[in-house]
Design goal:
Length: about 140
């Protein structure tokens, strides 16, 4: 059976995929877990006193829900004291921002793709570069 080309269909190529790609293609839960693993490197503990987290609270930790610390009696989240704390960007936006910066994309294209202000991109670049410098000095 021979398939006849349909002139009503749009053209599809890799460029159109790249142009259409954005944060909505990334699973937010997976991105959050990925970033939290990078930040905490397996050390799941209270950001205030360092008290370890019981395994029964790991699900809440990865969902960034508040967790009560029996050590210091404070509530904290996995994002407390990290670059994710008070971030207006979603975790999928941060992942995509990191990738686009690493690929050398322009500030204008990053801002347009992520729907964020151009002025916030240099701040995020400094935050991400700072984390990279700390990691390279500690390892």
């Amino acid at each position: 059976m021979k398939i006849k080309p349909n002139s009503k269909r749009g053209l599809f190529n890799s460029r159109s995929v790249v142009e259409g790609f954005g944060p909505r293609f990334l699973d937010e839960d997976f991105c959050r877990g990925f970033l939290l693993d990078l930040i905490h490197t397996g050390n799941f503990s209270c950001s205030f006193c360092g008290h370890g987290i019981s395994n029964k609270y790991l699900n809440d930790f990865y969902k960034n829900n508040p967790i009560y610390c029996p050590g210091c009696r404070k509530d904290f989240r996995a994002s407390s004291g990290t670059i994710l704390n008070y971030s207006k960007l979603s975790c999928s936006q941060i992942i995509l921002l990191s990738l686009m910066l690493e690929l050398g994309c322009s500030v204008e294209s990053i801002a347009e793709r992520l729907g964020i202000a151009r002025q916030s991109i240099p701040r995020w670049k400094r935050k991400l570069d700072f984390r990279k410098r700390i990691k390279s000095h500690s390892g």
